[in-house]
Amino acid sequence: MNSIVLVFLTALVPLLVGSIYYNPKTFANIWMKESGVDEERLKSGNMAMIFGLTYFYSLMLCFFLQSMVIHQFHINSIVMNEPGFGDASSQVMMDVKSFMDKYGNNFRSFGHGAIHGIIASVFFVLPVVAINALFERRSWKYIMLHWGFWAVSLLIMGGLICQFTQLK
User: Residue 157, exposed/middle/buried by CB under 10 A (0-12, 13-18, 19+)?
Assistant: First the structure.
């Protein structure tokens, strides 16, 4: 699948996961209690703006995740200052092609990307959510609830990106 198309589709994951995760039949009531939000306040928001910005920020996450879950992304950054970079007939580009032919599909599975998604949730999202929550005097239930949402979302996003992004 085309990488850009995949990124735009994968950016929908937090919206889809959120529609299930924060549904009244799952965690909505806990979320509302822990966040101090009621039905009236929820109805007051500009949903088009909220969903639009959520999608935009999800796109940002997808672009970041590509470099995290696909190790081969880094080969170009290692050699980009070498003479001939970008010229298909140069030695450096022939070396990159040779490397990609040999190793381009290593660790390119849904499971591998999912593991990196979980790692990102534990070592990046959890600390950010926890620090904000601590200063806002929120509960650990609040922290774990929001981290859980991002753990599920990033697991799926990382898996999809790793499995289906095509490198050239």
Answer: buried
